[in-house]
Each structure stands twice: as structure tokens, then as C-alpha cells.
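Below is a complete specimen:
___
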Amino acid sequence: MFHDIGCKYSIIFYCFIILDIIFEKLLTDEKDALKMFFDEKYNSDYDAFSPGHDIETSWLIVKCAEEIGDKKYIQKARDLAIRIGRKVKENGIDDKF
């Protein structure tokens, strides 16, 4: 997949950084949904729930963790995906439609 070994390690390095930012700064206090609309210090005053974006982000986080192959990150990503899925199931489905 990667043509240049340096490129591969750069991508892996940035995947770790991105996952850390997600796990540490982009989640709600309950750690079951993503915050939205941040300032430059990752502060968000926007109180909304976006189930579609959360579900899509959850599988991308798992895929990213699996690609870098770190067991700790894979488990954290899977745990997060499960929490997000539960929240979407409980709060993100409109029974009228």
C-alpha cells in the first residue's frame, strides 16, 4: 500500500496523534458522542447530537486503529464505537420515520 517506508511511518505517526486528539478532546463528558464546532483549543459550546456523523466517525476510528495495529488503540476505538452505537440506538432513531 505504501510506496515509501518513510511515508508509511509518517502516516502511522499522524494516526496516533489524530486518535489521541479524538479520545482526549473531541468526546462528550460521557465519552459516548462527539462534540462539534471547536475553537483552536478544542473547546466546544455547541450542544447537539449528530448520530449519523458519530456512527461514521466511530467506524473510521476503528479502521484507523486497526491500520496502525496498536492493540491498546484498537480496543479503545472499539469500546468507543460500542458506546457511540448504544447512544445512537437509544437517542438517535426517530420512531416516526
Q: What stands out?
A: The first helix runs from residue 5 to 25.
